[in-house]
Structures are given as C-alpha cells and as structure tokens.
Amino acid sequence: MNVFKTLTKSFLLALLTGAVATAFFTASAGAHDKDKSRWNQKYENEVYIFGKEPIPFLKNNVDILPKGRALDLAMGEGRNGVYLATQGFEVVGIDISEQGLQKAHRLAAANGTTIETRVADLESIQLEKGAYDVVLCAYYMQRDLFPQMKDALKSGGMVVVETYNTDYLKYQPSFRRQWALEENELLEIFKDYKIILYRVYDDGEEAYSSIIAQKP
Questions:
Q1: Residue 111 near residue 79, CB atoms below 8 Å
Q2: For residue 33, what are the CA distances in angstroms to 23, 71, 94, 129, 178?
Q3: Which of 83, 86, 112, 208 could cross-link with 54 by S-S, CB 3.0 to 4.6 Å?
Q4: How many other C-beta atoms can be found within 10 angstroms of the C-beta atom of residue 32?
Q5: Positive or negative CA dihedral for 109, 111, 114, 115?
Q6: What is residue 182's three-state secondary structure?
Q7: Residue 80: which of 103, 101, 100, 53 has the closest Cα?
Q8: Contacts of 121-125 spanning 24+ positions with Cβ under 8 A
C-alpha cells in the first residue's frame, strides 16, 4: 500500500520537509491558529491532495471491523471516513480544518452517503468515552492521544492506526523521529488489546506500520 501515490514526488517532498508537514504529521508543534490557517488554505484547492480513495489497509480489512459508530481522527478531506460511511458505518470525523471537512462532506455526497464532522484541536480535545465501535487514525502522530483513543472505544471495538515508522527516516532524513513510530511501538501501546492484524511495510521509498487491535 502506498498512501501518497496520488501525490507527485516533488509535492510529497515539499510536504514532508516544509512547514506543512509540521501541522499534519505531528501535534508537537501545536495545532494552533497558524496550522488551522495553513491547512484551510491547502484544502481550499478543489483537488483532493491526498486522493479520494481510502488507505488500502482500511479498505482491504473493512470486513473485520465491527459495524456501528466510527471515529475518524484528523479526518482531513475525508477519504477514510467517507469510505467507512459507504460501508454502513455511522461516521464522525474530527479535524482542525473547516475547509478539509467541507471537502469531506462533498466527497460523502458524491458517494451517496453522509458523515458527521466536528472542527476541533486534537491537542486539547476530550473524546467521549465508550462511544465508538471503531476508532481510526491515519498519518497523524500524537502519542498522548492514544489513551483517549482506547478509552473512546466500546468493549469489543477496534482501533485502526497507520503511520510512518522510523525506517522512513532512511528515505526522508529531514522527517523528525518524534513523528515516527518506534519499532513495535504500536504493539506495545496496544499490548492489552487483542492484536487482529499488524504489519510493517517498507518498499524502498517509504516505511510505515499498521495495526488493527480489539478492546477486551
């Protein structure tokens, strides 16, 4: 799976090494007004910069997930959450960018479905506990959000996480290590869960880790 195949190599490099990457891939710099403004400006373009298709890890394993209410964290333009909605999930998407969420609604309409969205700063949010059957977080790294993600799940619910790992630094040395998962970090975070699927991917250009884990 290659999450950014819809982007040109030059745009991807700029995204990863410039100020935009700071807002998208980590909360360490703070999701403040400047980040909201930056992403609103980026998403004003009619082009879906990350594409309209879900990450393959989600699409290929959607049948594993328990149907019900799904939370898409850092939803952006909505490709993952909208896909879940087309598969019968009741989707709530959260993002700092109003423009991104507006595009997510347009994508949902184009796919004959609906979603609920909320504009919020994930650094200061308090997620509803025990409210979701699925919690999804793709390519957004905020370590102190993981406990809330776990608390937000119902018993038997599943979490889906995918993002870059430290092997990615071989291909993008300017990518900050703090934004990347350490070796087996997801397994450690969800060691009290049932691991349904776990994989580490490296195609010589990018590297990331993915997990689906079930709350007891």
A1: no
A2: 10, 23, 16, 27, 22
A3: 83
A4: 12
A5: negative
A6: coil
A7: 53
A8: 121/31, 121/32, 121/96, 122/27, 122/31, 122/73, 122/74, 122/94, 122/96, 123/27, 123/30, 123/31, 125/94
How is the chain split into domains, by residue range? Answer: 9-214
Q: How far apart are the first and last CA of the chain?
A: 29
Q: Which two tokens stand for residue 128?
A: 């509803």
Q: State pLDDT tens for residues 48-75.
A: 989 999 999 999 999 999 999 999 999 9
For domain 9-214, give the CATH superfamily.
Vaccinia Virus protein VP39 (3.40.50.150)
Q: What angle do CA 161, 115, 47 make, to 5 degrees?
A: 80
Which has more confidence, 16 or 84? Answer: 84
pTM check: above 0.85: no
